[in-house]
Every structure is written in C-alpha cells, then in structure tokens.
Inverse folding.
C-alpha cells in the first residue's frame, strides 16, 4: 500500500470518522436494537422479550384498521401540508425580496412561530380553535369560524394543516429568500428590458435558478410531515375517533399505551421503509429536474 | 429587485404581506395576554385582555423552575451540541463531496435514511444505548446524544451546499502547498458560512425546544432544560397555564434575539454574493 | 483497500464502545455497591409522582421525612405532561434507573410492572386503611400497593343555577336529570358541557359507570374476559346510550370540540350548569371563582333507584421497587408509612394536598363542595367502584373513539357496543 492511499484513509477517518462513529453508536445502534424488538413480544417493561419471529409484521398486514386510517391520514396531511407550506413560503419569499418598506420586520414575524416547541404549540392552538374561533364566530357570524373546529375529521384535518403551515412557512421562506436574493440581478434586468412578462420571468428565470432550494424545502417539509407527532398529539390527540392520528402517533400508542412494544417497533420499521422509499423518490425526481433545468 | 420605485402595486403587495404577518402574529396574542393573568382569569376568559397587568406568574415561574439554572442548562446543551455537530458535519460533508468513494457513499445514504426514523420508535433502545455508554443524566452525555441525532440533517444540508462551492479555490491552495487540513479550515469552512448559519438556526430551534429527548435522559432536577421546566406545569387532569405560559415566553425571548442577530448575518452574507446557485 | 477501511471503522467503533462502557461500569459500581448492614447507612431514596401541582408539597413532606431520618436523602421527581409519565417510567426502567417508589393506577398497570413490585402485606398502615381501598392492589391475598386517597366523580353542578332554574330535588335518575336539564335550558343556561373530545372523560369515567353499576362488577369483568358475556347484550351498557344522548341533546353546540379545559371554563364562567368531572377539577374551579357553590351528582343510566350512587375509587397506589437494594426498600416503606400513618403525613394529606384520605379516623380538612358530597355519599354507602383500572391496555382509547363516532352519527349504539366487545377480546 502506498503512502498516498494511507494518507487518504487517515484523512477520511479524520474528517468523516468522528461524526459517523457517534451517529452510528447512538442512532444506528438504537435502530438495530429496535429491529430486534420488532421480532419479539415485549410490553416495554419486562426484563425478558419473547422472540416471535415475523408475527408482528404479519399482524400489521392481517388487518390493523386504525393503522390503515392513520396511514391514509398521514399521506393526505403530508400532501396538503407540503404543497401549501411550500407555495405560501415561495410566494412570501418573492414578495419579501421586493423593496418593501417593512420586509425585514415581516420576515421576522413570519419566522416567529418556529421558536415555539411542538407540544406547547399544539396546546396553544387547541385553545385557539376551541375558544377564540368560537368567540370570533359569535362576533362575526362568519361560517369559517363557526365550523366545529377539531370536532369532525374534516376540521381536524385542516386544523392540523393550518397549524403546520403556520409553524413552518417561515423557515422554508428563509431558504427561498436566500435562493432568490442570490439570483444575479443582471439576468432579471436583461429580461425586463427585453419586455418579458412577470410570469415569464418567474417560470423561466426565478424557478429554474432556485430549484436547489425547492429540493431542500420539499425534502425538509416531507421529513417533518411524515414524522409528525407532537403538534397533532397535543392539538387533537388523534380525535375525533382516531381520524387525525398520524402514523407516528399510531406507533407511539401501540408501543406505549397498548403496551405492545414489539408490534410498535415492527410498525416503525415498516414506516421507515415506506417513508424512505418516498423520500428517495422525491430526491431523485427533483435531482433529475435540477439537471434538466 | 428590479426597480426601486415604490409604485402602487408594491404598496398592495406590502398590504397583503402585512395582513398575512398579522395573522401569523395573532396566536402570540393569547400567549402573551394569558401569561399576565392570574389562573382564575385565564380559566374564565382566555381571550380577554388582563384586567390589570401582573407579573406574578413570571415571578412564580422564575422561582419554581429556578429559571437562571434551567436557562444556563439549555444554553450549555444547545451551544455545545450545535458547535460539535456543525464542525463534525461540515468536515464529513466536505470530505464526502470532494473525495467520494463507495464507503462514504454508503455512509451518506445512512445519514439521509436516518432522517426518516421517527424518534418515538427508537427512544427506548436509545435510552438503553445511552445507559450502556454512560451518557445518562449528564450535560456532556446529552450533548453527545445530540451529536448523533443531529448529524443527518447537518450533513444533508451541508453536503448539498459544498457541491456549489467552486473547487478552484481549494485546488490553487493545494498548489500553494496547503495541506488538506489547512485548506479545509482556512478556505472551505469560511466559505460555508451562510449554510452553516442556516444549519445553526434550524438545529438551535430543535434543541432549544426539544422536550422528549431531555425528558428521557436528564433525570436530575439540577440539569433540567427550559422545556422540561415548562412541562412540569402540565398534568393529565390539570394544566397550570399561568406559570407554563410565563416560562414559555421567558424561554422564547433569547431565541428570538438570537434569530434576529443571525438573520442579519444571513442577509448580509447573501447580498455580499457569497452564495451562488 | 476498502476492506481495510471498513476494518478500521469497526475497530474504532469497538474501541469507542469499550471506552464508554468501561467508564460507565466504574460509575455504576460506585453507585450500587454500598456496604450493607451498617447502622444508619446513607440511603438515597428516589420518589416518583405524577401530580405536578403537588410537586412542592411533596418536596416539603420529603424534607420533613429527611429530618426524622437523617440517613435518608429523598429525591422527589414529578413528571406530568399528560399521560407521558408512564412512557418516562418505562424508559427509566429500561435504563436501569427505575425509581424506588412510583405510582400504579390499577390492576392492568400492576400486571405491566409486576416484575418490579415488592410485597407490602406486613406494613403497619394496612390495618388503618379503608378496606375497599386495599382491594385494588390486593393480588392473590398479598398487598402490593399502598392507596393514598379517594377520589370521586360524577356531574359537578352549579347550585346557584339549579336554584335559579327551579330544580329543587337533586336528580338521581335519567328522567329526573332530563327534567332538570330542560328547566336549566329554559332558564337560559347550557345544561351540560360534555367535554367529549377528551378521551378519559368518555373512555375511563363515563364508560366505567356501566361496569360499576353491575350487581357484581368483578364477576362481570371475569366473565367478559372468559368470553361468556357481551357488553352488547347487557342492559346497563345499552342504557349507557340514554345518558350519552341526554348529555349531547342538552349539551353545548359541538360536543366533540370541547375538552376538559373548556368544560371547566364553561362551568367556571357560569354558562354551563353541569360537567362530568371529578374532585380534581375543584382546584381550577375555585381559582376562577372562590365563592363557587358546587356539588356532585351521580351519573345515572336509567330510572332505577340504585343509580343514586357516585363513583368513588382509589386513583393510584404507591408501590415499592423490589429491585432496589434492601436498605433503600426499607427506607421506601418507612417513607410510605410516614405519609399515611403519622400525624405529620396525615396533616399533609388533608391540609396540603387536599386529599380525602383512604384511611380510617383521618379527618379530611379543607374539603369543598364536591369533596364534601363525596364523603356524604360514601357515608350513606351510596358509591360505585372505579373499575377502569382493569380495562385492558388501550381499551379506553377504543371506547373514546367509538363513542365519539356514535356522537358524530357515524355508527349506531349497537355497532358501538359490538365493536367494543371485539376490541376487549382483542386487547385483553
């Protein structure tokens, strides 16, 4: 083995080693232990976990109605939230890169919701939906505020989307702002002088040049929504009748309330595989799109 | 962007944004207003303004959660976790982009895949692992755990960014006789700063507000963080909103200031043209 | 070369692991291997409880205990956060950091923790406890947990509104309750704030009544477990529909949007006359209105006279961790005994915690409307037990989901009961 190769390996270990080793010891190790539990029957407390092979996995497929409901909810929630949050964030980013008088203040305000943590945010919003919306509804008679918020599957769903969008738009917006500001002004000025329409500038210049930011934002939004737990846990607690239960909550209930830790782990592994698949597909498609653009 | 004239259309856009911003701000009204009311008044009417402004909740919350202590703990945990994960993440991301090979490719896939793991599904094994390595119940311990859980997103974001940094700078540095280490720390790392700031903001928000992980690994009262302090006011049958909201606001203020400072940095960094897509 | 790299990584992993594990073993050894059998040896007692609003009071009590037992240091840990305390307890035990004293709510939870629970049969407080309170965790003739207090629930009602609406006799059957609700509605108030969006309001407390009103609740549960009876075939479970319908008809506009916080709010500000809640909600009610004039009504299912009974039970038992070292277990038992069996402890229970003690000859002090009514019902022997501690894990969730679906008109009552029968069989 020659010196250059030795040096390369040493450098690999120096640069990648520390981060990866800690990550592997903490996260991967835990995950592997979790895989082991998914093959056992364990209540999360007993000293011994009983090996049951593939039973837990079979049980999930044999018909776990509520798991199905929560999977569908998660999917719908993910679609609605990722699209809404990204469109709104992009729109706001476009507006806030214009020479507005209060752009900086507005950016800060829209970012503000990010500073409140998940569970307490859910509690605060629960309070707003069940109290303030009712008061506003009585005052104005507006149908929107008079809806039975959190009381029906439909309102529970949209309430979850609203809270997610409210919380996360600001962050996505910051990434879009960064990308839009970095577009070379001369390109836009040239197009402007050529008499290009606003729409044309948006679709032919701005979007193609911010496609990297779009990939990142969609990926971030995906990883937040698919794993959604604490906000909805506090906001609806899955109700009414389990219609707003996310898959992460289903796993949590299975493991910690129904005390089937093994079955919960099996669901978590399946969930991991599915979401991993979706995310990979997303990254690959937008990557392709990046190349084409 | 194109013209600086404040023509009527801009004015309407501004109005629209102001309206949206007000909507965004409205939930904070409830948080602030109720943090100034006695418990009974919150229960009676949580939407109204306080009858008189009272700071009792803040005083009480400050004392019962020993705010200076939990604040210091949160500060230590957050800053050390962020510093470590950003440094290690930047090193790994840069190396993976510049010297790709099969193994580092696999490692990168592992990092990205781990972003998909819901925390709830690894939490019990994680506690066992933390126990095995002696990471329970200490601030250095939780910092190391955060390194582990924070690496994936850090590497993912920086990995994408390093690709957009032109190689030429490093190459000329090598020609000038710089070692790999020198070229990373002196040339590349400073160039990554806009994305590093982004990562710092994102991860700070997560760690500062994180509840479940510290709850699982920090048992001693003397090392509790702010979210644990807030949740000490919540029970199954009874929530003490008065103290909880006051603690929430006291915990929010430092992070808002932090964001304002970093936001300037991002905007300045960007307009100085250090980011190129 | 790739192989080499891999080997290096693996070696590093192992080395790091050994390093951490080694350091950890040392510190572990220091904690555990205290020399046994030494007089007044230093003991660290780890006490875990789940009522956040009592955190300070328990700490004061622990200080008192420490003064009596200078060799013991008590660490009081309070975890609230809704139902998360159980999750936290699990992870602590998983980490081998289980507390020495912790709460267990009922037989189902006992089963979960049975590997860790010490026998308390010979403890001095056993003779002083109210007999039915001991039954909850009396497992095969052994006393496995120590009850502390009694709690009761039903419909907390606003006496002023009842008077104003002209309801003179306190209703104890469904018909009487309906008549009262009608008068209250005519007087311009909302008779019920249902709180039906909170799972435990329905899943634990409301559903419990149909079990507890059975002639022999225990026998009914045993038969249910054996698959010999069905809830769908039982009159009381069928009658439960009456009270659900009644509360929804005379309740607030959107029952599934109201949670337990909103219930208290509507009750405290005088819009709602009744809420299905328990003595634990007196704290916020009196915070909002120190002069509130309140009492407690039973939850009737039909017009039978025996409906005039309120649900009184032991909300939790403290248990001692049998995997703790011997001297620590002894200190834990002393601590528990000091809580319920000493003048100081009893003073704490009644005055500082506001509890109704589960012990004979302890005078409850500082009880307010609801607490007083509970004592009165108990004095006349008009109580039904809490049996939801015997629901299989997760059953309360299913109850809540299914009754919510009924309230939302998604399914009829027969379907609700048959689905719950199926859920019981699956989860038991």
């Amino acid at each position: 083995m020659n010196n250059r190769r030795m040096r390369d390996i040493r450098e690999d270990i120096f640069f990648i080693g520390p981060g990866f080793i800690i990550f592997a010891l903490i996260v991967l190790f835990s995950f592997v232990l979790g895989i082991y539990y998914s093959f056992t029957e364990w209540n999360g407390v007993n000293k011994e976990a009983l090996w049951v092979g593939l039973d837990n996995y079979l049980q999930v497929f044999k018909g776990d109605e509520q798991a199905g409901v929560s999977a569908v909810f998660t999917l719908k929630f993910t679609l609605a939230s990722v699209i809404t949050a990204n469109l709104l964030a992009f729109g706001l980013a476009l507006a806030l890169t214009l020479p507005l008088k209060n752009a900086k203040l507005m950016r800060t305000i829209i970012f503000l919701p990010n500073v409140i943590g998940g569970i307490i945010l859910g509690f605060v919003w629960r309070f707003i939906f069940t109290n303030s919306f009712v008061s506003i509804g009585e005052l104005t008679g507006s149908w929107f505020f008079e809806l039975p918020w959190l009381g029906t599957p439909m309102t529970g769903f949209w309430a979850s989307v609203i809270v997610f969008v409210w919380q996360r738009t600001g962050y996505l917006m910051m990434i879009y702002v960064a990308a839009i500001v970095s577009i070379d002004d001369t390109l836009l000025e040239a197009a402007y002088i050529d008499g290009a329409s606003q729409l044309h500038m948006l679709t032919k210049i701005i979007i193609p040049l911010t496609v990297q930011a779009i990939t990142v934002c969609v990926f971030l939004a995906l990883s937040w929504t698919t794993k959604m737990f604490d906000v909805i846990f506090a906001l609806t607690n899955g109700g009414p009748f389990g219609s707003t239960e996310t898959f992460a909550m289903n796993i949590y209930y299975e493991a910690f309330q129904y005390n089937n830790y093994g079955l919960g782990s099996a669901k978590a592994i399946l969930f991991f595989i599915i979401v991993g698949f979706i995310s990979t597909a997303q990254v690959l498609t937008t990557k392709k799109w990046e190349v084409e653009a | 962007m194109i013209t600086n004239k404040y023509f009527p259309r801009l004015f309407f856009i501004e109005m629209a944004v102001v309206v949206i911003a007000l909507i965004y701000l409205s939930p904070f009204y409830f948080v602030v207003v109720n943090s100034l009311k006695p418990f009974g008044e919150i229960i009676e009417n949580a939407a109204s303004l306080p009858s008189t402004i009272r700071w009792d909740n803040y005083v009480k919350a400050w004392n019962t959660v020993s705010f200076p202590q939990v604040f210091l703990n949160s500060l230590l945990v957050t800053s050390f976790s962020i510093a470590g994960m950003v440094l290690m993440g930047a090193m790994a991301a840069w190396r993976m982009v510049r010297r790709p090979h099969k193994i580092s490719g696999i490692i990168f896939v592992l990092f990205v895949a781990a972003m998909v793991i819901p925390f709830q599904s690894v939490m019990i094994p994680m506690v066992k692992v933390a126990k095995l390595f002696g990471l329970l119940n200490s601030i250095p311990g939780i910092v190391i755990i955060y390194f582990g859980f924070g690496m994936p997103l850090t590497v993912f974001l920086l990995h994408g960014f390093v690709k957009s940094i032109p190689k030429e700078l490093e190459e000329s540095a090598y020609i000038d006789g710089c070692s790999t280490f020198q070229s990373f720390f002196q040339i590349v790392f400073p160039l990554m700063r806009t994305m590093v700031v982004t990562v710092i903001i994102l991860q700070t928000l997560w760690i500062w507000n994180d509840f479940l992980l510290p709850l699982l690994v920090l048992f001693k009262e003397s090392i509790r963080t702010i979210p644990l302090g807030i949740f000490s006011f919540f029970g199954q049958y009874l929530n003490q909103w008065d103290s909880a909201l006051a603690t929430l606001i006291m915990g929010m203020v430092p992070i808002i200031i932090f964001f304002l400072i970093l936001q300037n940095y991002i905007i300045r960094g960007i307009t100085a043209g250090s980011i190129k897509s | 070369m790739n192989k080499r790299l891999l080997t290096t990584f693996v070696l590093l992993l192992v080395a790091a692991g050994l390093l951490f594990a080694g350091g950890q073993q040392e510190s572990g050894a220091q904690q555990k291997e205290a020399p046994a059998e030494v007089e007044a040896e230093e003991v660290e007692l780890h006490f875990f409880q789940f009522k956040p609003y009592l955190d300070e009071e328990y700490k004061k009590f622990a200080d008192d205990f420490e003064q009596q037992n200078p060799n013991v240091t008590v660490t009081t840990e309070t975890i609230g956060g809704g139902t998360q305390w159980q999750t936290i307890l699990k992870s602590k035990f998983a980490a081998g950091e289980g507390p020495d004293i912790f709460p267990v709510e009922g037989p189902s939870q006992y089963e979960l923790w049975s590997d860790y629970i010490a026998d308390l049969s010979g403890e001095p407080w056993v003779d002083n406890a109210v007999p039915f309170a001991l039954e909850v965790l009396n497992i095969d003739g052994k006393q496995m947990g120590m009850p502390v207090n009694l709690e009761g629930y039903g419909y907390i009602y606003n006496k002023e509104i009842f008077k104003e609406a002209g309801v003179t006799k306190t209703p104890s059957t469904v018909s009487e309750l309906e008549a009262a609700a009608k008068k209250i509605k005519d007087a311009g108030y909302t008779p019920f704030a249902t709180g039906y969006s909170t799972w435990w309001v329905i899943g634990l407390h409301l559903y419990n009544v149909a079990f507890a009103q059975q002639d022999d609740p225990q026998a009914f549960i045993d038969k249910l477990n054996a698959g010999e009876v069905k809830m769908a075939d039982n009159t009381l479970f069928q009658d439960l529909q009456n009270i659900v319908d009644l509360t929804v008809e005379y309740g607030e506009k959107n029952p599934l949007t109201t949670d337990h916080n909103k219930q208290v709010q509507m009750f405290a500000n005088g819009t709602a006359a009744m809420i299905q809640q328990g003595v634990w909600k007196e704290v916020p009610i009196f915070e909002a209105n120190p002069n509130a004039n309140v009492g407690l009504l039973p939850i009737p299912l039909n017009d039978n006279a025996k409906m005039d009974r309120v649900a009184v039970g032991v909300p939790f038992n403290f248990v001692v961790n049998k995997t703790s070292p011997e001297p620590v277990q002894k200190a834990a038992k002393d601590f528990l005994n000091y809580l319920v069996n000493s003048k100081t402890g009893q003073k704490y229970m009644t005055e500082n915690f506001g509890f109704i003690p589960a012990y004979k000859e302890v005078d409850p002090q500082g009880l307010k409307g609801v607490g007083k009514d509970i004592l009165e019902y108990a004095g006349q022997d008009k109580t039904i037990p809490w049996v939801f501690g015997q629901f299989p894990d997760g059953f309360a969730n299913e109850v809540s989901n299914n009754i919510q679906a009924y309230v939302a008109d998604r399914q009829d009552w027969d379907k609700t009961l048959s689905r719950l029968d199926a859920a019981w069989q699956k989860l038991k």
